[in-house]
Amino acid sequence: MYKNHICYYSIYSEFNTLGQNNLDMNFSNNISEQNLSWATLLLRLVSGGFMLTHGIPKLMKIINGDMGFADPIGLGPTFSLILTVFAEFICALFILVGFKTKWASIPLMVTMLVAAFIVHLDDPFPKKEFPLLYLAIYAALFLLGSGKFSIDGVMNKRV
């Protein structure tokens, strides 16, 4: 019986060591390039896809000839609408597919700054929360770039 106990302890100890090593590897502070690429892909798909839900209706306004839009920074409603569609549709699409992500994130960051601190200046924080969240994501994408699961990654042969 004592012999079986030692064998059980040895197997349990080995299993526990393997399990702990896997746990340490999965939850370590070390960031692999592969995990970083997956995280970047997730950020791009979510932020680009969600932003398209704002950009497409504004693009439809232009297509339908309705140029009525806010003029938050004094450029005129038509030009403000065009700039917003450029950011929220074209740049969001570029981010979604990972094409020139760093460049595409700049107009989106500017648009989110305008939304948070000019359009919603007098509104309570919950109205500013989404533009600020998008701003943080686009700033992260500006720093990270497209990642390897992107058009830029394929063009740079990183896949």
Task: Give a short synopsis of this structure.
The protein has one domain (34-155). It contains six helices and no strands.
Question: How does the SSE layout of this entry go?
Answer:
Layout: H1 2-26, H2 33-63, H3 77-97, H4 101-119, H5 125-144, H6 151-155
Helix pairs in contact: 2-3, 2-5, 3-4, 4-5
Report on this model:
By secondary structure, the protein is mostly helical. It has one domain (34-155). It has six helices and no strands. It has helices at 2-26, 33-63, 77-97, 101-119, 125-144, 151-155. The longest helix is centred in the N-terminal third of the chain and has 31 residues, at 33-63. It starts with a helix and ends with a helix. 22% of the residues are buried. The mean pLDDT is 87.
List keywords for this structure.
mainly alpha, 6 helices, 76% helix
How many domains? The number is 1
Which class of secondary structure composition applies to the elements? mainly alpha
What general form does the structure show? globular
What is the beta-strand fraction? under 5%
Low-pLDDT ranges: none
